[in-house]
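Board notes (copied after class):
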Amino acid sequence: MPLPALASVSTIHERLRIIYPDGTPNRNYCVREIAAKTIFVMLYVGAIVGTDRWLRPDQVTRMTDVQAARTGEVDRLQWTSDSLKSIRGKTIDRWYAGNTREPIRDETLREGLIRTGAVIEREGLPTTSSKPRYALAPGFAALFDPHLIDEALLDAIGAWQKTNLSSGALARIALLRSRAVASDDGVIITFPNRETRRMGPGLSSEISKAVVEEFAPRFLKIPGVIFLSESGNKVVARDDDLARKIGLKIQSDKNLPDLILVDLGPQHPLLVFVEVVATDGPVGDSRKEALLLLAQEAGFAAPNVAFVTAYRDRSASAFKKTVDALAWGSFAWFMSEPDHILKMTDGSQNAHTLSTLMAPT
């Protein structure tokens, strides 16, 4: 069987970002350069299911720019054979160090491409076998045909996504796409009382809009917005009347969070401090303590105060960058998965067991 036509690494990289949009689980493993180079080498050696050709991860590490430019079938077949042999001496200008085969195997292949059906692992091989074992699914390999372009390419990608991405992943992608573009005029937020406010364009405004319009009605019984700020504009909206009713004195110079929500449904109103994270600034331990003091000065007991950090998506770099700074006892919420919330449970002093934490709420 002839080897497939080869697209460049840069073309593969570009197409991966379309195939796996923002919101795709483990997206980073699927769209980074090492994934593009892995797919390039799989195409280079013809590792596509049905051809009985397979890839070994260390073949990716052994590829060089000089070899990648040799695209004739004879050169490709000869390199495929040579790349499976033991190396004597050093390979000059190889793409990756030898030990990079492990993240290629564990992250790019197993946690990324295999999970979406893009790559198939060969059955029947012992785990200790050194034989090549990975191949591209034919439908996925076809998306990198250099002759497939424009509308035909987008149609093929769309069809593959519908078949291979889970309903949950597709829902996350659709939500992010629906909010992906803010107009130059800014973002209009509709409050629970139906009033509207306009914020400047940008990701922080989009997340704030989602907090007010999606998070609040889902997780608060009778929601209200007391305070809303944005970058470059200390205050967008504040409801002093509502604040007075619950005993909260808003002082803009008090280092307030991005949003203050209130739930008037419980017997004792619940005060909710929200930090919006587009790049940085989650509710960490020191921030939580400062906000709790502010609430206690207004007469709120600790059990009636909640702290939420709002993100665009679990796969976004902002979450990965700041997750280790989230305060215990706070929550994280994601615009792309509005029905779910992450609780940073403090299990000190045996306050919780797994059985109690798993009990329906």
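Comment from the instructor: The mean pLDDT is 88. Residues 187-358 form a domain with the Trna Endonuclease; Chain: A, domain 1 fold (CATH 3.40.1350.80).
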